[in-house]
Automatic annotation (TrEMBL):
Residues 77-207 form the Activator of Hsp90 ATPase homologue 1/2-like C-terminal domain. It comes from the Bacteria. SUPFAM superfamilies: Bet v1-like. Residues 3-55 form the Glyoxalase-related protein domain. Belongs to the AHA1 family. This is SRPBCC domain-containing protein. It comes from Nocardiopsis sediminis.
Length: 215
């Protein structure tokens, strides 16, 4: 069923029907006839009503820009050795969280990293695939469990290479969902990127002491 919103189309149809019967009606006159058919005094009143009824175009939903980065390193060590280095707290303290680390290596277990100058950062483990994959949600603020709006996801993936060395890739994602301003979000992401790059450099030194090759 047509409504007053269809007035212009109805006026066009009316003109065509009248023309077929040999009667020519200007477009403006057809609009006035349709307006009166809907009970309005004239076309101007109906046009105002149509404008008021038309929904205002709202802002288009923003498409989130996914924020993710990866850093990787090839270590001259067997994959089993590298897995221990990234999942055992005594090793993590040596290459990453120098003032304290704890790893409860199971889904739902907690990760804790401590730096005196930054604070204590906590994570919750999501996935453990020995020798292959280690995933946890990581708080973006100190002394708090990771929660939506203040967490990223950290993914370690390990790949054994033909020469016995191991590629380690660290991916951190979810920066776009952090509840902070754009400038702070970018700074947090860049700080994390630099932090992981420096950490992997430390991991490489730990995996291959001077004078040693693959373990």
């Amino acid at each position: 069923m047509r409504s007053f919103r269809d007035a212009k189309a109805m006026a066009k149809t009316l003109r065509a029907e009248l023309a077929a019967r040999g009667t020519t009606v200007p477009h403006s006159a057809a609009l006035e006839i349709v307006a009166r058919q809907f009970g309005f005094d004239d076309w101007n009143v109906l046009a105002a009503r149509i404008g008021a009824a038309r929904p205002e175009p709202g802002p288009r939903a923003a498409v989130p820009v996914l924020r993710i980065f990866s850093v990787d390193v090839v270590l001259p060590a067997r994959i089993g050795r590298v897995w221990e280095l990234i999942t055992r707290s005594e090793h993590v303290r040596a290459w990453f969280a120098f003032d304290g680390a704890a790893v409860d290596l199971r889904p739902g277990g907690e990760v804790e990293h401590v730096w005196h100058e930054h604070g204590r950062y906590r994570g919750v483990i999501e996935e453990v695939v020995p020798g292959a994959r280690f995933v946890y949600r990581y708080s973006s603020v100190p002394d708090a469990r990771p929660e939506p709006g203040r967490q990223t996801t950290v993914v370690f993936t390990l790949e054994e290479l033909a020469d016995g060395s191991t590629r380690v890739r660290v991916t951190e994602e979810g920066f776009e969902a952090l509840e902070m301003g754009d400038a702070d979000r970018r700074a947090h992401e860049e700080g994390a990127r630099q932090g992981w790059q420096g950490a992997l450099d430390g991991l490489a030194r730990l995996a291959a002491p001077a004078g040693e090759g693959p373990a």
